[in-house]
């Protein structure tokens, strides 16, 4: 019951944030002498469920800050986690509208230059798998795609499945991506597409969960699904090998599977004691177990 109540509270917080158009602001608006009981996270829709899970368990176990540290006041622990994409997470830190940004790609040098006293905390690794519906006949004849074949599929040079391999049906390939301006697509563009562009007809989904759902709903769909989401949906989507390398934990850690990306929490400036405490929790053995439980490769 306690856990359910925490989830309800978390949902109300997120709803409130949406309704007020981010009118609730992070630390800068509070008095320097006033203990800040609210901590805001914004960014990657891939990383948001991981941070939310750790936050929910933290609230369940403690409820108020004084139960975590006797020097803290008896104020409720309010952790706001808002998904909007990696670039939105970086922008929120640059604009000062969130305490922490969640990013599932490397942060660019030009972005770091805009963030005073830049800090980052690496929670884990993820890769973009090239995944299809388990009923897609390609799995019976071809379980590996070269980088060039992936590029041709996503660019529209291959329009039908029988152009990918003889014997496949003359069905149109349904390409599913994240929004083109998002962090996941940036990784895919850099590591697979190069100078080629994804075809205009591709379906752009607003979150990784929506992308995976589209693949599950359509046997002719193909998309770049997060490794974590593949592990959360075993049997519902199937990843292909790329250049003969399967997206396994071993190949991710070794770097053999090349469409990889880090899972990072970023911050501008020094951390408040309560912020440091929660960051330490995310990086602890307990936090790493949650990262692994959610399907990703923990940072340590």
Automatic annotation (TrEMBL):
The organism's lineage? Bacteria, Bacillati, Bacillota, Clostridia, Peptostreptococcales
Q: How does it sit in the membrane?
A: Lipid-anchor
Q: Name one GO biological process term.
A: phosphate ion transport
Q: Per its UniProt entry, which superkingdom is the organism in?
A: Bacteria
Tell me the subunit arrangement: The complex is composed of two ATP-binding proteins (PstB), two transmembrane proteins (PstC and PstA) and a solute-binding protein (PstS).
Domain (PBP) ranges: 38-269
Q: Which GO terms describe its cellular component?
A: plasma membrane
Main subcellular location: membrane
Q: Which PANTHER family match?
A: PERIPLASMIC PHOSPHATE BINDING COMPONENT OF PHOSPHATE ABC TRANSPORTER, PHOSPHATE-BINDING PROTEIN PSTS
Signal peptide start-end: 1-20
State where the protein is found. Cell membrane
Q: Name one Pfam family in it.
A: PBP_like_2
Q: What does this gene product do?
A: Part of the ABC transporter complex PstSACB involved in phosphate import.
Per UniProt, the keywords (alphabetical) are: Lipoprotein, Palmitate, Phosphate transport, Signal, Transport
Q: Which organism is it from?
A: Peptoclostridium acidaminophilum DSM 3953
Q: Which family does it belong to?
A: Belongs to the PstS family.
**Protein name per the record:** Phosphate ABC transporter substrate-binding p rotein, PhoT family
PROSITE patterns found in the cross-reference section? PROKAR_LIPOPROTEIN
